[in-house]
Amino acid sequence: MSSTRRLGPNAPDTKKTGGFHDKAYDSDDDGFETVASDTTLHDIALKVDFFDKAKTEAFFSSNIAAFAAQKNGKRNILHDIAEESRQQIREQYSQYKERLKVILTNHPSLLSGQNEQGYTPLHCALSKKNKTFVVTATENPKIKEDLGQIFAKQDNNRDNVLCWASKLHYIFLEDMITACLPSVKALEQRDVHGNTILHLAVGNIWDRDDQRDRQLSLVGLLVKAHSKVLTQKNSAGNTPFQLRQDVLRKGGRRDSNTDKISQLIKTFCMRNLARNEAIDALYKTGEERHLEFDLAGLPNPTITTEYLNSLSGHLKFESILKYVALPKLSIVPDDGYTARIENGMEMKAGKKKKKSQKGLRDMETIFSWLKANGVKQIIKVIVVDNGDVAHTDEAIENCLSDFNVEIWNWKRIDLCAEVIQKSAGHSVREISLYSSGNNAVLSSWAGADGLGNPENFPLLERVNLYVQEGLETSQRLSEYIERFKQKLRKGFEERKKPTVCHFLDTGYSFSGSFATSNSNHQSEHAWLKTMDHFVECILQLLPEDPKKDIKIAVIDDGVDASLESVKGKIASGNSFCPYPNSNDLISSYFVPSSTSHGTIMADLICRICPRVKLYVARLDEGYALHGKRQITAKSAAAAIRWAVKCGVDIISMSWTIESTSNDSATASSNALNPLEDLVSALDEAGKSNILMFGAASDQGSASKICYPAESDKCIPIGAATETGEICPWVHQGQAKYTCPGYKVPFKRGDGTQPSYHNGSSVATAIASGLAGLILYCDRLAGSDEDKKLKSKKGMSDAFFNMSIVPSGDMKFPRVGQFFTVESSEKEKWKVLSQDDAEDESMMTGTEVKEGLSPTARNKLNDILRRLKEPRHGAHS
């Protein structure tokens, strides 16, 4: 053996270089190990019968040093086994599998080795389409616990094994993913383009049915295995769902509602993700849709179809809704649109409908309206229908049969199970039943014609039984309930039995409480009267130009969208106010709270600035340290950031958060506490050149530091009387300017007496409206190119200029000196047609262009000139 070197059996491995191509150790007949210069460990392994236990043991014992040399994390024998040709594998298939299995069992760490390109043996196997290697390796019990870490090994291009398998369309990818769970590290990793494995999985449109089915199954597995990746964005800023939409658009398919992959992800998000997470997963900024419809909290139990139609102007629904929650409602129809049953006959568009009983049909109008607005599926339905007169069986079926409801909570006593089956039997997973305690009904529910028939309710997982304590004793009622449970479970003996829970129905199981506000007498308000007259002139300047409308965010407790003054002016909205102790339900932004605070603020803004588009954000409330209800900083920060994304001109914040609130407690050492996050959000809005108005504290000069007024990006506003005297409860050192905030009237427009309202919150809304009006005038006159009034300093200077008086603190805008229009001039405030302009030119001898009349233009220019004048000492 001319090119061998004798070593003792225990000699140290001094000649190894550490790479896969190191010389393998063989043995002479005399038992000494020898190194063959042209032989690798893989070459030797190819000659070993691994079904022969003695030869297998001899192979490992004779090559201890060689295997040790390969455990340096670099290329090793498994790379070579992975790259064997298909012909080699076919010729010795059984021996190949056994060789791989035995080596993996004895040296499992070799599967983590990476060559110069960063490829593990699994990378190499996938590149060679070596299914035998992949399956054998991933099924090896010695490897199982470490598969998650092995799959997470990334090559030099940041592709892990799962990414490779996806890009190569490996048909056993699902098996690989299942094998590596519960570890999710490989599912979270991103390739060089920032794509996760889920991004890659949704990135193709296949032609063959078997390919599409496999892709759908893979995506379903991935979202269930680790839903967190649904909100992860790639380098292009797309989540997996957003990437899918781009792929569909590029492929000429515009409607994602017919794409099974998109529908699967949307449905999963609605079922399993929190609302904000679902929005992040599904929508790009500015493309958000509404995921629920909740009318709980309406101040009036009667609504009109006109109200529903007005909601269509700013509610853009997703095709799948997380839930719909409806209190007891009466629908007043418009002409040709009947919701209620009158005299036993329903009329629509002049056509007679079949005769009905005295039951209600109101909800049909709402669910038909939802369908007309693009809603195709509703995950959870909550309807309160427990009055003396309830909805008919037919009406309920008409309401819900097209929506594939999964969680049923229609509160009607002793509702027939057949109605549920016809409405949602094929899709429902959870049912809430409301019982009067009648044993016959309970028995019917649990029987073969009811919920006890799994053929009628194939997906049923849970039944919630709410029972009223009626005529029967508690003991007898308990017996009835127990029989119900036993009978129901008996019907599911051959299938997984649904969970059955029962409760005494005390009324807490349905949503919403309803309040109606009281009103008082109204007197005229001089400051507002001046603005009302000026606004009348502005409204003559037709036609409307939406491009000139001012975008104002009303961040408060919701706005009653039925209010006449805001109809058609709500451009968009969002709610950051979940129900107490609920992860699923959220208070709607278009339904006011019991105080109607945000509604009043929105009304005042629209009164002062009629050409406005409102962006309504509903805030959450918690308890401050002193036990008083207070806006949460977390929801306020989220709302401000949402308003920034919407590109608003002004943010109106008629509330305060004290720095001593619970929100100031730090959640973790590495994260901003909620109050710090609020300050950060205010800074972000300031950098986006958005004007912000915040209420000064109404707790006097002894009050604590409070936000948003304390932010240097915000203009703090305090309350004053209509003549400008600052109200005694206002923190005077905090308020930069004041506006009317004492006995300010609010009129609903429904014939009721108006109510009076006090406070810096009222003044803040008025200031926001005034700023909006000024910006609108600037745009109308075409003098807004300098953007001066868009800056905080520019608008602050304008307020200062309006506040100048011979004596006083110069904080209160004297609008009478700027916005007064004589009655004789009103008629001249109109838009001139081309003919009008020509006539005016002939009469005056000067050129007059169509558009604003000279009277209107001169007045606006005079106002703006005076507002923009630099003033020494103006507030910054």
TrEMBL record:
GO terms for molecular function: serine-type endopeptidase activity. It comes from the Eukaryota. One of its GO terms (biological process) is proteolysis. Residues 79-106 form a coiled coil. The keyword Coiled coil applies. Keywords: Coiled coil, Hydrolase, Protease, Serine protease. Residues 1-23, 832-855 are annotated as: Disordered. Residues 13-23 have a biased composition (Basic and acidic residues). CDD domains: Peptidases_S8_7. InterPro entries: Ankyrin_rpt-contain_sf, Peptidase_S8/S53_dom, Peptidase_S8/S53_dom_sf, Peptidase_S8_subtilisin-like, Peptidase_S8_subtilisin-rel. Residues 548-775 form the Peptidase S8/S53 domain. The keyword Hydrolase applies. Belongs to the peptidase S8 family. PANTHER family: CEREVISIN-RELATED, PEPTIDASE S8. This is Peptidase S8/S53 domain-containing protein. It comes from Orbilia javanica. The lineage of its organism: Eukaryota, Fungi, Dikarya, Ascomycota, Pezizomycotina.
